[in-house]
Amino acid sequence: MNEQYELTILMPCLNEAETLAACINKANTYLKESGVHGEVVVADNGSTDGSQKIAEEHGARVVNVPEKGYGAALIGGCNGARGKYVIMGDADDSYDFLHLAPFVEKLREGYDLVMGNRFKGGIEPGAMPPLHRYLGNPVLSFIARLFFPCKIGDYHCGLRGYNRESILKLGLVTTGMEYASEMVVKATLNHLKIAEVPTTLKKDGRSHAPHLRSWSDGWRHLKFLLMHSPNWLFMYPGLILFFLGLALTVVLSLGNIQIGSVGLGVHTLMYAAAAMMVGFNLVMFSLFVRSYASVTGFIPTESRLDKWLEETSTEKGVLLGIFLFLAGIAVTIVAFCIWGKTGFGGLSPESMMRITIPAMLLIVVGIEVVFGSFFIGILHIRHK
Length: 384
What we know:
The protein has a 7-stranded mixed β-sheet with strand order 3-2-1-4-6-5-7. A two-stranded antiparallel ribbon has the order 8-9. The chain is elongated, with a radius of gyration of 28 Å. The chain has 2 domains: 223 residues, Spore Coat Polysaccharide Biosynthesis Protein SpsA, Chain A (Alpha-Beta Complex), CATH 3.90.550.10; 150 residues, no CATH class. It is of the alpha/beta class.
């Protein structure tokens, strides 16, 4: 029977022979001096430099994770951990495994996730590249706080502790560096208790290049944040474009407007109509994602909008679409009658476009609402 521990200190590892022993020794020293009943686990991601042997010789348990990636290593290590709590940290000797008490204290208080904050604890000169320290990390952390209701100041700190059972229930799946964002985002969306404690960062002790790739991994973090926030990716930009386009379309359908020395006419009306259509499509994309999420559970669905989507029938959407379509046809008939009065001859393009463009918008939006309603209905079909 496997022995159970209060704490597992988990280190993802890929060819960290230069620093692994120092990290394990510090972790074991912390466990011994603090009296915490724990273990040190190295989640090896296919090292070829003898890291596995070094780990075992220094008292760590090795969990081999064949699937490549930072996230894959941590997921495999967490699955193999035997502690109630897990504190994860890189095996490059940049994090201080001797001072884990603040993390353990917060975990014992009942927090599900305890994040380290390197900006509050102190960053040694040269420990973090300027691009990461002054641009990448602050910008991505700001975007994450904007998209999700969490006040974490350092979203990408690699030293963090968590209640193993709580995190396993989140079903984390990303295998790359974006795993760091996934953990915080899903913990926030699922209303887990999150705390933050200061921690330090020093220059790592390895001679080879870091595994982190600034631009590609930064993009993966940003992409993850966007794909898990359909409101910010689709809904808000869509509403801005739609109502801006709608306002201009209504005003310019009545005649030209003059703003100082700038005159806006039918050409602006065309662009306003395009903005309105793009905005409408973005809003529809947001509804599609929300419907998909309600069935798959990839993000929690608890808002009024989600409940409205669940309760609104396909038939109601189809009827609304048909109404808009017929309204567009009616406006088109008006334009046709005006054309007929001229004997179906030449017309003033400017005056007719003020009628035909709104008619076209109503027809196209009506058709999209009809088929979009069917698509949302299909997304809500539940399978075994």
